[in-house]
Amino acid sequence: MAGDALSRHGERALVEMLRRLHDPDGRSGIGDDCAVVRQRGGALVATTDITFDGVHYPSDAPARSKGWYAAAVNLSDIAAMGAEPLGLLVAYGFPPETQLRDFRNVARGVEDCAAAHGTRVLGGDTKGFGNLTICATALGVATHGGPLMRSGAKPGDILVLTGKVGRAHEWAATNGRSGLGRMLKVEPRLREGVALARAGATSCVDLSDGLALSIHLLADASQCGMVADFDAVPFFDAVRSEDRAAAASYGGDFELLATVPRDKVAAAIAAVEGVGGVLAVIGEVGGRKVRYISSGRERPLPKEGFEHLRGGCG
Amino acid sequence: MAGDALSRHGERALVEMLRRLHDPDGRSGIGDDCAVVRQRGGALVATTDITFDGVHYPSDAPARSKGWYAAAVNLSDIAAMGAEPLGLLVAYGFPPETQLRDFRNVARGVEDCAAAHGTRVLGGDTKGFGNLTICATALGVATHGGPLMRSGAKPGDILVLTGKVGRAHEWAATNGRSGLGRMLKVEPRLREGVALARAGATSCVDLSDGLALSIHLLADASQCGMVADFDAVPFFDAVRSEDRAAAASYGGDFELLATVPRDKVAAAIAAVEGVGGVLAVIGEVGGRKVRYISSGRERPLPKEGFEHLRGGCG
Fold first, then answer.
1. Which residue in A54, A191, A194, B32 has the fewest CB atoms around it within 10 Å?
2. pLDDT average, residue stretch A3-11
3. Distance CA B48, CA A203 (A)
4. What is the pTM of this model?
5. Exposed, middle or buried by CB within 10 Å (0-12, 13-18, 19+), for B310?
6. pLDDT for res A310
């Protein structure tokens, strides 16, 4: 790859370039899970995510799972803002030879996910293109206590997590295919996000780039250190104790990682359990660096995650 | 193409299928220029449009023009609702071998268009993919008199148009290449749209599918007939009188076509001129069918436009 190709930079450097171009004064929150538009009566939040068949999921995944996944990853970003969804827009590129049944099943997957999470598809776009492409946009409105930005964590706050880590690891351990539909059936933690916002959470992010990077994202945005106790993180059964650091650096998990003031942790746990979720205490905010504890030993947490573009990886 | 392929159906049949799936009770306005979310304090409007390099514009177009175009076609849909833009989200698929300079120029084109029209880029997504893909989403808020739906035209209303028709025709007449950047430099008629809404327009659509189809879209949505006087339509100079019907069936124009009550036409013209635009009276609403007049003769207006997917065309 000659010259100054994007593959030499990686997604985060490019996003930083875009942030400087589009948002030099830091008003719009580029780089958070959602953009925020402050309006009378509350904050509108919006996010978009584009997925290409055969790049971000295998082409032979069930059509309905592809649609679900495209909707779910966007709703997960709405959840990370502690917001309630207003609806989805979905733009498709479809190969003209696509069977009508498959087209309908992709759209049904989107509809299934929207309906299961109390929202709906508002509109979209359909174009012909050689590679199935789904670009979904989710809109939401911040509730009481929101929007939860990445930048609000304070020293002394407690780090909490809404569920298990290591879906991709578990999927790999079962040789993939068998669980492909299940792997794509991401459940956005919308009710948990709203519960966390109302309970007074100070920052939040979803785990779409992996647990390790997500901890760094909160720490960097909030300009403070953090320590995560991996012995307290609920991992999937397939993740052996020696694999924890690796599983924490994978994408594929869409739980919420949040910070909550120490005196509100009990209320946050009760609020999340009240909407049918779970909330684990996995660390705290403090110090200068980002560290993790595993088998009782504290180490620096590598800033590794699932980064697009670099090395040609999707 | 075997079986029941999408190429046998065409974009509008697919959109109708999606509308029945996602919006069986007709609440969200799927099929209008934007989706509408009614909120306290006004209506939020949102639209998304996906474009693929080499399909929706030539690959050798200037990078900055590609970005401008992607932003402009979405802002044109906001304009057609008589709304003011709140911002854009832009999701990219970029080949990893893309030069950083080209990436930056695409983003600059988006920024140029947003800034020129008083809005900004709020966020987005960047992924690696073999074919440059730009999926932009525009958000807006309806102003006084809006949102302008396609369905509000009433018999007796006057059909008005904000500018000239036949950009694609003119582009072809100049052998293309020379004017490619200019062809992609679509100017969304945002100020005109707001002026029309405030002046009491009853319906509006942008010309992205061509004048002829746009007239049918208003007529169908409003369940009334219309007659357009092509002798009164301002065409580009390259469009000879015998080419008018053909030019009216091309895409590539992004003017606004609206209906205005007869007693408000003078005020609408003054309002549009007041924001630096032009407004031509080109017909009226009435009768059962959709007709056009050319060289003094009235004929049925063919329902032809620029439809994606059918026949494999992008």
1. A54
2. 86
3. 29
4. 0.93
5. middle
6. 45
Four-point Cα dihedral B274, B154, B41, B82, nearest 10: -40
Q: pLDDT tens-digit profile of A99-120?
A: 999 999 999 999 999 999 999 9
| Residues B96, A9: C-beta atoms closer than 8 Å | no
| 8 Å CB contact of B128 and A312 | yes
pLDDT digits (tens, 9 = 90+) for B288-305: 999 999 988 999 998 876
Cβ pair A96:B1 closer than 8 A: yes
Q: Do the Cβ atoms of B103 and A3 come within 8 Å?
A: no
Find, in chain B, the residue whose alpha carbon is nearest to that of A51: B127
Alpha carbon distance B54, A93 (integer Å)? 13
Buried b (16+ CB within 10 A) or exposed e, B207-244: bbbbbbbbbbbbbebbebebbbbbeebebbeebeeeeb
Kindly list the residues from chain B whose CB atom is less than 8 angstroms away from the CB atom of residue A127: 11, 50-52, 55-56, 308-309, 314
Q: How far apart are CA B18 and CA B16, in angstroms?
A: 5
Residues of chain B with Cβ-Cβ distance to A50 below 8 Å are 91-93, 125, 127, 133, 135
Check B129 against A87: CB less than 8 A apart: no
Put simply, the answer to whether B128 touches A47 (Cβ < 8 Å) is no
Residues of chain B neighbouring A51 (CB-CB closer than 8 A): 127
Q: What are the residue ranges of helices labelled H in A81-128?
A: 100-116
What is this model's ipTM? 0.92
The pLDDT tens digits for A14-29 are 888 999 999 888 776 6
The percent of residues above 70 in pLDDT, for chain B, comes to 94
Query: How many whole angstroms from its chain centre is CA B257?
Result: 9
Q: Specify the amino acid at residue B286.
A: G
